[in-house]
Amino acid sequence: MGMNVNLRQLEVFACVAEFRSFTDAARSLRLTQSALSRTVQQLEAALGCRLFDRSTRAVVLTPEGTEFLGVARRATEELNGGLRYFEQFVAGRRGRVSIATIPSVAVSVLAPVVARFQRQQPEVDLFILDGISGGVLGTVLQGKADCGLAFSTGLDAEVVFEPLLSDRFFALCPKEHPLARKKTVRWKDLAKYPFLGSAPTSSVRHFTDAAFLQAGVEVRNLYQPTGVPPLVSLVAQGLGVTALPGLVLPIAEFAGLVHRPLVEPALIRQIGVLTRSGLPQSPAARAFLAFLRQEIRSDRVGGKYQRPTG
Q: pTM of the entire structure?
């Protein structure tokens, strides 16, 4: 329609309509009466109609003014509501954050952080996308996740890795197993017994294969389940031994297994945040990552087998 109307004009009009007085409205808005009258005149000119009948005794809305008052109120309420939402968005108190991660990190690190963050910022929607480590990297590169939580291996040049935790590998065996009498276990010692390996697609398998290669021994990976719980259950049944990172040791302890630090080599994987280089983070994502760093530095997540990096 070509009507050039601004928010200030709507606010002035609504205030005059409420007080039914130019003088009282000007005082409320801290304007001079001449400035207020000029604003109303500009609004009437833009709309092409009179909004008030003025007399020495009263200010009365015209029929057009009465109809426009509803429009003005709805417009100002909607805009003010939008501005309030945007203010919270900029402050990181509203929005959506997608985090890609591997299952072990999701359970041991991410879950408690998410729970505490949501209690502080309930209006931020958090989405957890779990999968294998390579899948986490791909999800971040494709922009499907604001960030990822995974390991420092196999990264892409377009990805920025910020280390957060050091996660050491341990040997796991039943309490009555000969390895349970040792303070530390060499990978060569581990290879003397039936070894229960993780599935070839798992991040754990990548690390254990590399460690055995460095130790100069070969093992036959038995059973190769895709998840940690079945692997732990098989060890608990006395079918062999395994090697797992500290993140998943609470599951092993629940099954009554013994764990010992692995040496020669001492295998430690770095867990950190993956973000796409050059991709701006939303305020909510920045707020969540800052909260995650704070929680890790305070040792409230990760368990007793991990240490904050840096």
A: 0.78
